[in-house]
């Protein structure tokens, strides 16, 4: 008898929990808050470009927005399993990624720049394959920079790192001829390392998008909101606020 | 199913780097470790060896790898490649452990063995080659297997520096397709197969050293 009452208590406890977690009118966004200025933790709160955008989307969906801080690698897994309703964490949209989950329209196109210690390198030199024969270029694994380089300059050998600071170290110790980073980060690193030069390369073709579970009903609603936000120049305001 | 096979092939390309890094650092660490253990036995250079062991056993391997890859090239006239920098870091780190393993093996030998060698005037080289080392290796054989299994998994740390080993290729495919668990399982099974191979060979070799008591 005791066992039965114990288990029924347990069952009640868990069902009670799951009921209280899922409030009807809320949307849970997952984000990996380690990438300023898009999402990072300041004074115990997650803030950034993506966070403001997600809040605005929540406002227009008339839902309460809840954020969950999940490591980047586990983010898409959390979308599949339904722990979160959507992931907004500078996720670059590619065809291969669209196979496993749904993505909304892109909301931001990243600017790319080449960091190098050599003074006489120009943007056009990237397409000269003889120049890069014995040299590697550092990029962040899974970033829009990696995808862009593989598409546009497949002759350049890439070395994949996890952190931008490692790329800077590898350039400084002479292992790499250069590194491709996004504009925001590279300009900060250039200020700190005076010997490095920052060369603007252009904008990526693939931008950042919000990831949703397959066949999510939210996709069209969010797409419409993103279109409206672009028309109202809300996205421009956000990038002025956070990036420039 | 097709995508799983493709993933397995993709990650499998890293086996070569993992294995060659393991073999290289294993040989180097045993070479350095046995020199240090013998030198400790003859009570020579005790202080420097103790400091070396203390530093390399006391700091994280990832720090040593980064140091050899990022910092050392600034003081050298040449740049060791990622493979050589990481095999040296792994070898130096491993040699600290190997020295201690061998020391425990040497100390477990009865003192009579050394006295017998002395009284029979057996030359030092032959004494070590034919008498002491075979007994030491028999004593420490389980620790050798233990250390090799740990080492092959430690090689996965070079993935952080961008070396394309099993772990890195798993991370690449997981970032490309945004899938996590299946590639992780595949990478894990590659490591497990390698470990099983090591265990198999160590069993085979271990039987040669086995003496019935």
Task: Provide an overview of this structure.
- The complex is a heterodimer of chains A (244) and B (213).
- Chain A is α/β, with parallel strands linked by helices and 244 residues long.
- Chain A folds into two domains: 22-109 and 207-242, Periplasmic binding protein-like II (D-Maltodextrin-Binding Protein, domain 2); 111-203, Periplasmic binding protein-like II (D-Maltodextrin-Binding Protein, domain 2, 3-Layer(aba) Sandwich), CATH 3.40.190.10.
- Chain A contains nine helices and 13 strands.
- The model of chain A has no long low-confidence stretch (mean pLDDT 83).
- Chain B is built from nine helices and no strands.
- The chains are: A alpha/beta (244), B mainly alpha (213).
- The A-B interface holds A 73-74, 76-77, 94, 96-97, 99-101, 138, 141-142, 159-162, 166, 169-170, 172-175, 211 and B 66, 69-71, 73-74, 79, 82, 160-162, 168, 171-172, 174-181.
Shape of chain A: globular
CATH class of the largest domain in chain A: Alpha Beta
Question: Quick one: biggest sheet of chain B?
Answer: none
Order of helices and strands of chain B: HHHHHHHHH
The proportion of residues forming helix of chain B, as a percent range, comes to over 70%
Quantity of strands of chain B, as a count: 0
Order of helices and strands of chain A: HEEEEHEHEHEEEHEHEHEEHH
Structural class of the helix and strand makeup of chain A?
A: alpha/beta
Q: Ranges of chain B with pLDDT <50 over ≥5 residues?
A: none
Main sheet record of chain A: 5 strands, mixed
- Strand percentage of chain A lies at 25-35%
Helical element count of chain B? Answer: 9
Helix content of chain A: 40-55%
Which fold name corresponds to the CATH topology of the largest domain in chain A?
Answer: D-Maltodextrin-Binding Protein, domain 2
The chain-level mean pLDDT of chain B equals: 90
Indicate the multimeric state.
Answer: heterodimer
């Amino acid at each position: 008898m005791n066992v039965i009452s114990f288990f029924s208590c347990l069952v009640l406890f868990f069902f009670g929990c799951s009921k209280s977690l899922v409030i009807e009118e809320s949307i849970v966004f997952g984000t990996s808050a380690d990438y300023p200025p898009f999402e990072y933790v300041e004074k115990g709160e997650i803030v950034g470009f993506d966070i403001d955008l997600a809040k605005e989307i929540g406002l227009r969906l008339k839902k309460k927005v809840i954020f969950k801080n999940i490591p980047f690698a586990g983010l898409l897994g959390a979308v599949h399993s339904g722990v979160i309703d959507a992931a907004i964490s500078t996720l670059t949209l590619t065809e291969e990624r669209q196979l496993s989950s749904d993505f909304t329209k892109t909301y931001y196109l990243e600017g790319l720049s080449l960091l190098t210690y050599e003074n006489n390198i120009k943007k056009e030199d990237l397409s000269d394959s003889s120049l890069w024969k014995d040299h590697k270029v550092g990029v962040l694994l899974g970033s829009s920079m990696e995808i862009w380089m593989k598409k546009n300059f497949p002759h350049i050998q890439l070395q994949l790192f996890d952190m931008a600071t490692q790329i800077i170290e590898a350039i400084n110790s002479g292992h790499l001829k250069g590194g491709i980073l996004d504009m925001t980060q590279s300009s900060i690193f250039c200020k700190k390392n005076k010997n490095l030069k920052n060369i603007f390369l252009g904008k990526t073709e693939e931008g950042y998008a919000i990831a949703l579970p397959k066949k999510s009903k939210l996709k069209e609603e969010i797409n419409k909101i993103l279109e409206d936000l672009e028309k109202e120049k809300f996205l421009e305001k956000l990038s002025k606020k956070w990036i420039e | 199913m097709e995508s799983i096979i493709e993933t397995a092939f993709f990650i499998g390309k890293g086996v070569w780097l993992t294995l060659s890094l393991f073999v290289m650092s294993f040989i180097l660490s045993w070479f350095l470790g046995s020199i240090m253990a013998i030198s400790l036995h003859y009570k020579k250079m005790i202080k420097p060896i103790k400091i070396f062991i203390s530093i390399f056993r006391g700091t994280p391997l990832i720090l040593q790898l980064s140091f050899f890859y990022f910092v050392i090239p600034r003081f050298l006239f040449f740049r060791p490649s990622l493979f050589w920098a990481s095999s040296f870091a792994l070898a130096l780190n491993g040699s600290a452990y190997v020295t201690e393993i061998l020391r425990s093996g040497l100390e477990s030998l009865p003192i009579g063995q050394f006295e017998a060698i002395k009284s029979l005037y057996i030359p030092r080289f032959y004494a070590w080659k034919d008498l002491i080392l075979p007994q030491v290796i028999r004593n420490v054989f389980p620790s050798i297997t233990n250390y090799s299994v740990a080492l092959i998994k430690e090689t996965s740390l070079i993935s952080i520096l961008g070396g394309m080993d099993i772990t890195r290729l798993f991370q690449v495919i997981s970032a490309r397709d945004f899938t996590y668990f299946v590639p992780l399982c595949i990478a894990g099974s590659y490591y497990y197969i390698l470990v099983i191979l090591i265990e198999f060979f160590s069993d085979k070799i271990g039987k040669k050293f086995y003496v019935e008591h």
